[in-house]
Amino acid sequence: NAWVWVLALSCALMYVARYAINNWAILFLQVCKHYTLGDAGLIMAIYPVTGFAGAAASGWMSDRFFASRRNLPTLLYGFLQTGGMVLLFFSPPGNRWMDILAMGMIGFGVGGLIVFLAGLIAVDIMPKAVAGTVKGLIGLFAYVGAGTQDWISGLLLERHRIVIQGQSSYDFSSVIHFWIGASILSVLLAATAWNVKRTE
């Protein structure tokens, strides 16, 4: 089923955005938003809490309000993730509450997208007999995306490393576009499966 590959690629790109926040946001908060390590850690703590909430609400919400259709909720969660990243990366430093809101939006969006892209949509459209295989394939793509993200992000940040009086700092402008671009492409790919039907 070609839609499995579409979902796998969408999930891989979503994991680029997810692990960009997991692995690099704490450095971004210190370098670009001028937080101490402790304060950056406190803001990062919002991310898994709202991620749990987003995951917990996703399946129930799509069953209760969208007649078990995952397309519109997936799009909404994707907008939350991408919008949160734009808010976090492009808002000016010095506004703690805006950064907390942005991190909460990202976490909630990622939590739901993990449920939809890595699970429910694939299970909905494929026969139950191959559900485990499909989820395993999508999971493989997801973690390849996560690992590739770290490699590319590291290269981009190293290329834009700035040394001032012997101290290293980093220009995040290129890598931010990579992360947000991956998030947008993930949403667009997921949207192409808007009306896909279950395979019997």
Task: List the defining traits of the structure above.
two-stranded antiparallel sheet, 200 residues, globular, 2 strands, 7 helices, mainly alpha
Task: Describe this protein's structure.
- This protein is mainly alpha-helical and 200 residues long.
- The chain is 78% helix and 4% strand.
- It has helices spanning 2-31, 37-44, 46-65, 71-90, 96-125, 131-159, 173-192, and strands spanning 161-164, 167-170.
- Helix 1 runs antiparallel to helix 2 (37-44).
- The chain is globular, with a radius of gyration of 18 Å.
What topology emerges from the helices and strands here?
Elements: H1 2-31, H2 37-44, H3 46-65, H4 71-90, H5 96-125, H6 131-159, E1 161-164, E2 167-170, H7 173-192
Antiparallel strand pairs: 1-2
Helix pairs in contact: 1-2, 1-5, 1-6, 1-7, 3-5, 4-5, 4-7, 5-6, 6-7
| Straight-line distance between termini | 11 Å
Strand order of the largest sheet: 1-2
Structural class: mainly alpha
List low-pLDDT spans: none
Mean pLDDT: 89
What is the ordering of alpha helices and beta strands? HHHHHHEEH
Helix count, DSSP H or I runs of 4 or more residues: 7
How many strand elements? Answer: 2
Helix content: over 70%
Q: How big is the Rg?
A: 18 Å
Q: Major β-sheet, in short?
A: 2 strands, antiparallel
Shape descriptor reads globular
Content of β-strand: under 5%
